[in-house]
Amino acid sequence: MAKKDYSNLTKDQLLEVIEKLEGKKKYGLVWDEERVPEKVVTDCQDKLPVLTEVKDKEITTDENEPTHILIEGDNYHALSVLNYTHKGKVDLIYIDPPYNTGKANEWKYNDKYVDENDTYSHSKWASFMFKRLSLAKDLLKDTGVILISIDDNEQAHLKLICDDVFGSNNFVANIIWRGGKRNAAKFISTSHEYIIFYGKSLETISKLKISWKVRKSGLEDIYKQYEKLKKQHKTDYEIITKELKKWFKELAPDNPAKDHEHYSTVDERGIYFPDNISRGGGGGPKWPLKNPNTGNFVKIPSRGWAFSKEEDLIKAVEENRVHFSGDGVPCIKSYLKDKETQILDTIFYKDRRAASTKFKDILGDGVFDFPKDHEVISYFIDALSPTNAIILDFFAGSGTTGHSVLELNKNGAKRQFILATNNEGNICTEVTHPRLEKVINGYTGVKTNTTYNGLGGNLKYYKTSFVANNRNKDQLKIDITKRCTEMLCLKEGIFNLIKDEADYKIFHQGNRYLAVYYDFANASLDELKEEMNTLKGEKVLYCFTVDTNGLDKANFSDWKNIRLEPIPQKILDVYKRIFKN
Ligand SMILES: C[S@@+](CC[C@H](N)C(=O)[O-])C[C@H]1O[C@@H](n2cnc3c(N)ncnc32)[C@H](O)[C@@H]1O
Hints:
Layout: H1 11-23, H2 39-42, E1 47-53, E2 67-72, H3 75-85, E3 90-95, E4 108-109, E5 112-113, H4 121-137, E6 140-150, H5 155-166, E7 171-178, E8 192-199, H6 202-207, E9 213-215, H7 219-233, H8 237-250, E10 265-267, E11 270-275, H9 310-318, E12 322-323, E13 331-335, E14 341-343, E15 347-349, H10 353-363, H11 374-384, E16 390-393, H12 400-409, E17 416-421, H13 427-441, E18 442-444, E19 451-453, E20 458-468, H14 473-483, H15 485-492, E21 496-500, E22 504-509, E23 512-517, H16 523-534, E24 538-544, E25 562-567, H17 569-579
Parallel strand pairs: 2-17, 2-20, 3-6, 3-16, 7-15, 16-17, 23-24, 24-25
Antiparallel strand pairs: 1-20, 4-5, 6-8, 7-8, 9-14, 10-11, 11-13, 12-13, 18-19, 21-22, 22-23
The chain binds S-adenosylmethionine (SAM).
């Protein structure tokens, strides 16, 4: 980069340069932010994003199931819209952004692919990600989390960007996904990539005692074998134990059930592991204890019993919860059914090729090269979010995160996904939407001919579009009000149109109603009032006003049980904060 010539600057100009340099941060990642401004960002000075529904891409199966959202457009615009509709509402964000590998045709900045010859590629990427992550942060609940897939090309930079955006105190882990060896590697086989994991507020998560647990894998196989042995050998626990130990020994080392081999002893309560009965750290009581089977005193653990009261130890023996082996130190029985979950680990293995195989069975060859594995994404969503969570992916690509949520909902969960992706190479229209459509409605495997039943759910498809940022503020308010209906439906989660008049619309979802009134108050507002007053359920009215103070509640005193929301000032306030215009 050529050095700047400061010799001709005036004193005031030099002072400005010094002030700017002094104001720069001293720690963390710095990059050349202003060198190449991003067009999708600067565009927002002249036009404001809204959503337009693409009605013929809607998928409806059952109104009682969640309505998922797919937004086609640049995610900077999608995230700006979501800052009005979903501020503080999202439970989990998973993204898999372009890794900025320098390879041709990987990602675009200002409509141009960024490749290895671009000297500003890291600055562009940092700027691109910082802007989007900053918008995404405000969408998370205080208990929310964000997971970001990345590899060595940008991992170190992304960590610093995330420290900046989310706070280093909210860093949870840099998870390592081992995906299999690449023998064609130049120097060394890099067999892993990362998932960077932050909480919105770890303080809140700790205060609420939220713990992230996953069901151990391989349990189903163990229980199946146990049931089989029980059928064969009834209550002969000794032989069941012997057979179960034999079964564990014969398992392949990479079988997930093998990890639980120590749970191989059986009694009338089930499968258990003879666990340590001594006081952790030592200093436990040393009451004498007899083995009820031999009548002999057993060896007392050198650290003393884990129990604080002798009667509890005696009760455990009477209830057959203590495992004796001769006169040695006994053990406490730790049952598998009480230990089915575990906390997450920072390293896991999942062959990266498996995802492509599964993907090709949905849409065939040559459609999308590197989908993520929906089982991996499901695993994290399941462990880290409640069953009614809102899950967001704003680099949705082929829609893997949506697929993961649909799979999880199969078991009764009601999570909702919001996906955003651009339509580069027609990905949204020709890959994401068809994939979701197949998974929701069911399909026959392209490769395997297997019949996959539809997983159900509903989908709304929106495109980002724009309203000219009219310098006449009142005209802008009128223009944006006419175009904000989809945003209001999305904000309220109420989508089904039941009344479509020139001045107003009414939507419903279950027993919830949304009315939007678009005009300066006139006779039709009374008509709308009559209609709304006859409806029973939760009701909200979004009503147009140019008054920046909102609506005069006195004018709505005879509306029954209705929440009032003025439009569009709150939308404009959000855009003013983001676009600073
Ligand atoms: C690595 S892929 C994500 C793949 C995805 N996880 C999957 O399993 O299919 C990143 C995707 O982000 C999309 N993308 C890139 N820049 C974007 C932008 N500014 N706005 C919206 N989507 C973008 C690209 O179209 C690309 O498909």
